[in-house]
Amino acid sequence: MKLGIVGLPNVGKSTLFNSITKAGAECANYPFCTIEPNVGVVAVPDKRLDNLAKIYHPQKITHAVIEFVDIAGLVKGASKGEGLGNKFLSHIRETDAICEVVRCFNDSNIVHVDGSIDPVRDIETINLELIFADIETVNKRLEKAKKNLKADKKYQEEIDLLEKILKNLEEGKSARALEYNEDERKLLKDMFLLTTKPIIYIANVSEEQLGNLEEDENVKKVKEYASKENAEVVPLCVKMEEELSSLNEEDKKEMLEMYGLEESGLDKVIKKSYDLLGLMSFLTAGEPEVRAWTIKKGTKAPEAAGKIHSDIERGFIKAEIVSYDDLIREGSMNMAREKGLVRIEGKDYVMQDGDIVLFKFNV
Question: What are the tens digits of pLDDT across the range 127-147?
Fold first, then answer.
């Protein structure tokens, strides 16, 4: 699961990446300081694991993880290879979703590539480059499908979809803004379009703006833009998040309380990213390890078992399952079992978020 952090130069991308991963990506007040994408892996915040650890006292706690990629700053003309455009676009193609950092703060000491603060203009600069790249991709695919149509009429469905997408792109709108039926979604998977990737807009604000986010004009503009293409927005102060990332849990909690915040903006980004990709976690718990395993929503029990080991999927017999809430309420697996809360599920069972599972198998 890989998310690309993108944005214009000097909007706070690399600082955000540093805060998320504590990986120390180079930061500088000039464009393209991130040339090769920095990659960092970060744990998905999940308090359920800490609560299970109080019951099982495991030797090890393992969180689900997300991989973040810090991608070079983009400029106008990237779709034609300007700046580091070709590298930028190829790196985005390799991600599952996009986190686009948008500058919403004023600071005369930090240069803006376009000379002024205008979040919607900045979003459109990036999105238009992605749209231009997709127009080229769609046109090539359309040409090929029309040739294939002469030999096989099944290509008409693909042509209809491509023409629908092309019309939208030529109007300056992302492909993700369109509605698709199930057949269209299947065809869409093989097209690898940049503007179909799920996106979160990260509105980078100052510490002063944090106290009044609902009324902030720049944040409002980002939210209005995002609503038109079914995108999420997370306002946060990247500068403050960098400071938070260097604190221990006690000091971090104290600082968040000082700003009237329940959790850090980064935790929100990570959780939203996880949800954005249609992911959830099932849990395994015991003395050796308490662990969260990442699966797609709608995954059946044998496929989930395969996340642990292919042999477990191959030899799947049944799954012994208790919900997290039931186990925490009862305090132990034995108590949950006595109350009849531990279920035996078969091959057709669809996993639920927070299921605590013991798979039975035979190879």
Answer: 888 899 899 999 999 999 999
Token pair in block for residue 193: 């379009």
Q: Which two tokens stand for residue 343?
A: 């279920």
DSSP H or E segment with residue 51: helix 47-56
Q: Which residues contact 206 (CB under 8 A, 6 or more apart)?
A: 105, 106, 107, 237, 239
Query: pLDDT band at residue 29, thresholds of 50, 70 and 90?
Result: very low
Q: 200 and 272 in contact (C-beta within 8 Å)?
A: yes
The model's pTM: 0.80
CA distance linking residue 84 with residue 91, whole number of Å: 11
Tokens of 161: 């979809």
* Residue-by-residue DSSP string for 100-165: EEEE----TTS--TTSS--HHHHHHHHHHHHHHHHHHHHHHHHHHHHHHHTT-TTHHHHHHHHHHH
The continuous run of DSSP H or E covering 252 comes out as: helix 249-258
- The answer on pLDDT for 83 being more than 50 is no
The two tokens of residue 93 are 């193609």
